[in-house]
């Protein structure tokens, strides 16, 4: 599977000792709008986790689906995965389809300025009321970003990247169904949330 490419990537560079690992998880469709799944590895603060979801079939029934997710640390200090499904046409959370989830684990990346994990910070009380949280101004425009929670207490969260900032948002959905995830769709505690970023650069 090709996740991306970099024409300037130098495998022979003397300082380059990057370790890459890919994990694959298959998910079958069900009556669940969200799934919480423990992954088979212990949390490593020196590694970054990035991801991609691939639908088994793309047709008119799922061409408006968004599969969102974030990683979290469980009580045993292992990494877990929260996945949910949202339909942009219906503006509502829907049942998850059949899909495959790939996790790319990167460690020993040489340039710390373009690689790491940072916390969220509010810019104002107004932004908090609007369910937005804004990051510090970005020095660069990372090619890869990923959302982390230090605890398994957060519901579905969307992440949005612009040129100089990254935002997260909860979507408020009016729903009279008590068993739906939109009933608990809110941040439990903003301090739990962090983001991982990677902006590959030419090492020369």
Automatic annotation (TrEMBL):
Pfam families per record: DUF7431
Top-level taxon: Eukaryota
DUF7431 domain sequence ranges: 1-177
Entry protein name: DUF7431 domain-containing protein
């Amino acid at each position: 599977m090709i996740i991306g490419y970099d024409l300037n990537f130098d495998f022979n560079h003397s300082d380059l000792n990057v370790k890459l690992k890919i994990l694959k998880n298959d998910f079958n469709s069900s009556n669940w709008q969200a799934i919480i799944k423990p992954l088979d590895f212990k949390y490593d603060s020196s590694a970054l986790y990035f991801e991609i979801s691939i639908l088994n079939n793309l047709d008119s029934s799922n061409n408006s689906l968004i599969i969102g997710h974030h990683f979290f640390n469980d009580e045993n200090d292992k990494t877990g995965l929260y996945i949910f499904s949202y339909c942009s046409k219906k503006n509502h959370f829907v049942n998850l389809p059949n899909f495959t989830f790939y996790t790319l684990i990167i460690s020993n990346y040489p340039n710390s300025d373009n690689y790491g994990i940072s916390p969220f910070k509010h810019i104002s009380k107004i932004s908090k009321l609007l369910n937005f949280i804004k990051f510090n101004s970005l020095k660069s425009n990372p090619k890869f970003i990923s959302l982390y929670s230090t605890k398994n207490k957060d519901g579905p969260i969307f992440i949005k990247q612009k040129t100089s900032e990254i935002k997260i948002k909860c979507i408020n959905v009016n729903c009279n169904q008590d068993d739906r995830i939109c009933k608990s769709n809110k941040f439990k505690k903003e301090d739990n949330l962090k983001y991982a970023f990677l902006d590959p650069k030419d090492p020369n």
